[in-house]
Amino acid sequence: MKFYARRIGFYAITLWVAISLNFLLPRLMPGDPADILIAKLQQRGEVPVSTINNIRLLLGSDDQTPLWDQYWGYWGRLLQGDLGISFSKFPTPVTELIAGALPWTIVLVGLATIISFILGVGVGAWVGWRRGTWVDHLVPATTVLQSIPYFWLALIMISVFSVGLGIFPIIGGYDVFEFPSGPEWSWAFFGSAVYHGILPAVTIVLSSVGGWLLGMRNMMVSTLAEDYIVTAEAKGLKPMRILKAYATRNAAIPSVAGFAITLGFIVAGSIVMEQVFTYPGIGKLMFTAVQNNDYALMQGVFLVITLTVLAANFIMDLVYGFIDPRARHNV
């Protein structure tokens, strides 16, 4: 119980620090972000005084309000789900933009990461079990794919399968000509989204499976040298039972911990992939926010990513403490 109380306290403090830093970021930036945003809005027409006051309050340029009051006001708006108004998509709320982009990233990057993890750990366990044979050649082959710059691999995939063979579309998350009004709940739209997501997903899998495979292979080699494996072999247990129940389960523990951390960063998306494929996810939304100096949108995206990473690590700490008693006693 002491272990869980300490972890909860640690993550509660970390969450408070993360939200406080997110509040201070635009206020610590050089210049006046509020004036920049107001000037850009005024290029589109007259801006109401109420909007100007809200922008200054949101970005910390309200000199008449003490910083401490601004901080409590930020917490109040945050607890109500108010992350401000986006400049690049004015007057759309930041929460609406994030809610629209988040499912695309979670489904595509999430499924691709899970497939990459399962494939890498499964094949890595087999390669480690058959170490010294021809299957060891899979390690350098997948490592080469991982070492290729991600944007270069994505461009090669587009050049070969989209431009050259014409099998997959070049850009987008769905067919905008077939669905001009945007996403909808229909089997036709689902099929279009899956069709547009195959090439980006394959690119993610090819670029990440090598790391899981190499790590699992090395852990298997180390685990197979342990005394309990030798004892299991001396007892005459079947090789497949030793592989599944003794070697793979113990060798996979570090990979499971790493996978939990990776899941937390799924929400951040793959900025390079989403930019190359013009995929409508969180990564592209973040790129748009930085490109347009959209501070409210940047704050919102950074906050969502931070909360997701903390949540994933918190859950993994609790699960890890449950499956491995040594973690509880070493705290």
TrEMBL record:
GO biological process: transmembrane transport
Subcellular location: Cell membrane; Membrane
Listed SUPFAM superfamilies: MetI-like (SSF161098)
Record family assignment: Belongs to the binding-protein-dependent transport system permease family.
Transmembrane spans: 7-25, 101-129, 150-174, 194-214, 251-277, 297-323
UniProt keywords, alphabetically: Membrane, Transmembrane, Transmembrane helix, Transport
Domain ABC transmembrane type-1: 102-316
Source organism superkingdom: Bacteria
Membrane topology category: Multi-pass membrane protein
Originating organism: Microbacterium telephonicum
This protein's name: Peptide/nickel transport system permease protein
GO cellular component, one term: plasma membrane
InterPro entries (UniProt xref): MetI-like, MetI-like_sf
